[in-house]
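#help-structures
NK: newbie question, is this the right format to request a structure? protein is Anti-sigma regulatory factor, serine/threonine protein kinase
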Amino acid sequence: MEKVNTVFRLPTSLENLETLSSAIRQFIAQLELDPAVVYQLELATCEAFSNIVRHGVNHDPEQSVGVTLSYADGGVEIVLSDSGKPIPQAILRALAGRDKSLPEPDPHRQASWPESGIGLKLIFAMMDDVSYRSQEGRNELILIKHV
């Protein structure tokens, strides 16, 4: 299959999670992927969007997130771009290196679950490759899943 690309913008409101989810499902439907892969792509992307809304732009409805969905050479790439606060470098280093400096929650003790930060761990766990860059006031989170 040749490269397939969809680009759109969403206002930074959690109310747009369903719109994002629907767009992902519609884009991926043509690829006939394993339902588990579809779930991982949708979950990671919605978590990333939610993080941008909550932490990057602090629910500012005047902001928006650019979304690019691409498929080529056996991989799905999803790029989310925004102009909010960047993800702190210390957190990115810890996640990229699978560093143990971020606490591991005990699945049987809810008190050990962090109030925030687990979403990024989830995104890194669901995707085959995650990269991030922040320059000139724009942030880009690139999620790749090999299929």
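mod (FA): yep, format's fine, and the tokens are attached above. Residues 35-56 form the longest helix (22 residues).
NK: thank you!
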